[in-house]
Amino acid sequence: MTELKEFKLPDVGEGLTEADIVAWHVKPGDQVEVNQIIVEIETAKAVVELPSPWDGTVEKLLAAEGQTVDVGVPIIAVAVAGSTTEKTDNPERSRLPATEIPATPPVPAPPAIPPQATEPQASQAQADAPKRQAVLVGYGVKEAATTRRPRKVPAPASSSPASAGARALAKPPVRRLAKDLGISLAGLAGTGPAGSITRDDVQRAAAGTPARSDEIAGNGARTVSAGTAAGHGGEERIAVRGLRKTMAAAMVSSAFTAPHVTEFLQVDVTQTMAAVRRVRELPEFAQVRVSPLLFVARALLVAVARHPLINSSWDAAAAEIVVKGYVNLGVAVAADRGLLVPNVKDAGELPLAELARALQTVTETTRAGKASPADLTGGTITITNVGVFGVDAGTPILSPGEAAILAFGQVKEVPWVVDGQLAVRQACTLSLSFDHRIVDGELGSAVLRDVGAMLEDPVRLLAWA
Prior knowledge:
α2 runs parallel beside α3 (199-206) and α7 packs across α9 (441-456). The protein is α+β, with helices and mostly antiparallel strands and 465 residues long. β4 (37-42) and β5 (47-51) form a beta hairpin. The longest helix is centred in the middle third of the chain and has 16 residues, at 242-257. The chain is elongated, with a radius of gyration of 26 Å. It has 3 domains: 1-158, CATH 2.40.50.100; 168-239, no CATH class; 250-464, Chloramphenicol Acetyltransferase (2-Layer Sandwich). 23% of the residues lie in helices and 22% in strands.
């Protein structure tokens, strides 16, 4: 006998209340095993792959790609073999055809949980399942007494894929791009291998330019479901979901909660640039990307050790300033999903070579869309490299819960007075924004001045470390 079990969207961490379905890796009729990845979801913090908690056959997908689903709502039904509790006297319970996915999945009301409850409630179906040694992400939903957001009106059926079995063929990065641009993949003609949809196909759809017949190469022309783009005199609308929505809310909250002050300092970094070139040649730094930002990061870490109050947060509820005895160094990364700030844990304890590797790893992982919620939370102070965009300076907004953020502008040759003589030097502008509730002008200036001094003369960095 078999039993139909519904897998509910779990809270994958940090008390999240909803997630977007990015891509299904299974379809009705597929056989699945425990720990097999079945779906990719996007939360407010990261893209997460969820494994199957059971062995069985996929009976039905209860949420379409692109749909926003609340935690605790069933997203997939799996027929699990070996159970003796299945009811067979219900003639209405039958296998749905593989092409059927409801546009509006049923939303059962979550059970009330008394405040004193400390153990997550499991469904009866999960209680009947054999106990396993491994603890899986999503194996049973953690019913937390969190404040739930209002339900969102599901997208019309025409805006979602008609079926998982016939869903458009596209890689996850292409699906994310399409979602960010508000483009439905179901109506696109793919020009890639085997008719797959490419980034160019999505960008053409956003511009209102359908693929040519020779580009489709026999795949069959299909209607491009995109409105007139802004470049053609119309408007373009980009859906604000997931991380982009969360980051926007966080930036607004930070800007209007913490009183920001930004100070600027122009620095002669000629000696630092020479040190960067020398460090690149050392065997300890083989296969590691060494950039001036590494020295900026190290200088900031040393400045934090000299001025610990800069590495703190404001606890409004307790009316306290929390000074952190550790440094989780945040690095602002411009990724396809928007601005992300992963952090290097205990960065102040790392030797220079290990710090370089850690910065490279978190940056590459984040740009690839693989940063975990743990990577993106817990930061204590942040650096941002605006120089890579050809910008001299800026007024960066604090990451929520942090007291300071340091921006590093582009390095360029400028006229500079050295020992009373005019010379051409390599210089940049440092911008330090800080929470004026915690950091006064004297402390902020001291930190910025120390970082600048270490970049002007890297020997100071060694002496003060």
